[in-house]
Design a protein that fits this description.
73% helix, 235 residues, mainly alpha, 15 helices
Length: 235
């Protein structure tokens, strides 16, 4: 049994080795994990693979996606609860100007999302919605094949509401033809001792079926037993 940081280092490495890099793993590590947890994963990654996570990430991605993901994992994000309302207002305006100009890959967007504390970013996104009438992700419309934009949207979801983000990952994994076992396993395993019960509660409210029953229906054999053991008994 691997320690959490070793397990997550392996998950990151597997994600990077896929033909299409699973950027969600990197986004989750960078924006849902604490700065200390991310640092521990990066140390474990370097000890195990003799390369830094940033180095392998840069080697296996390119363009805007590389710029964004390397920026996310390369920062030690401030964890304080302080909010600067004036800064939230000014940076919401910067984000809106970039989006209006369709400069989704603008350095200012990368700078703001990759360096500000999560608390400050939530305040900025809230101000954006108050000032411009819709959430920032509603303005960042999906573009098929644009991995950078998809990663940016995922990052914002992780910042705004991690549990809602994870519930959507699980829901999509279960309804996907053949079941996305990598995504489903990742959420159940990494959140088992953290907020899995809250994710299960949210799943039930959103889908009118318990996560246990959904997993039992869509999986089988030892894999099914493994997941149901981690999910625990239903309330």
């Amino acid at each position: 049994m691997l320690d959490p940081e070793d397990r997550d280092a392996v998950l990151a490495n597997v994600a990077l080795k896929q033909t299409n890099t699973d950027y969600r793993v990197i986004v989750e590590l960078s924006l849902i994990y604490s700065s200390e947890e991310l640092l521990a994963v990066k140390r474990a990654y370097q000890a195990r693979y003799k390369h830094s996570l940033e180095e392998d990430l840069a080697a296996r991605t390119s363009g805007n996606l590389r710029k964004f993901l390397v920026a996310l994992v390369g920062v030690y994000r401030h964890e304080g609860g302080e909010i600067n309302s004036k800064l939230a207002s000014s940076e919401a305006a910067i984000l809106n100007n970039c989006i209006k100009e369709k400069a989704f890959n603008h350095d200012e967007i990368v700078r703001i999302v990759s360096t500000r504390s999560k608390t400050q970013l939530v305040a900025t996104f809230n101000h954006y919605k108050d000032e411009y009438g819709v959430s920032i992700n509603k303005h960042l419309k999906e573009e098929p094949g644009n991995k950078y934009l998809a990663a940016l949207r995922s990052a914002i979801k992780c910042i705004e509401d991690p549990k809602k983000y994870y519930e959507k990952v699980v829901r999509d994994a279960l309804i996907k033809r053949g079941t996305d076992e990598d995504a489903l396993t990742r959420v159940v395993v990494t959140r088992a001792e953290k907020d899995l019960q809250e994710i299960k509660d949210l799943y039930y409210r959103r889908n009118s079926i318990t996560l246990n029953k959904a997993v039992a229906k869509e999986t089988s054999g030892d894999y099914k037993t493994f997941l149901l053991t981690l999910l625990g008994k239903e309330d």
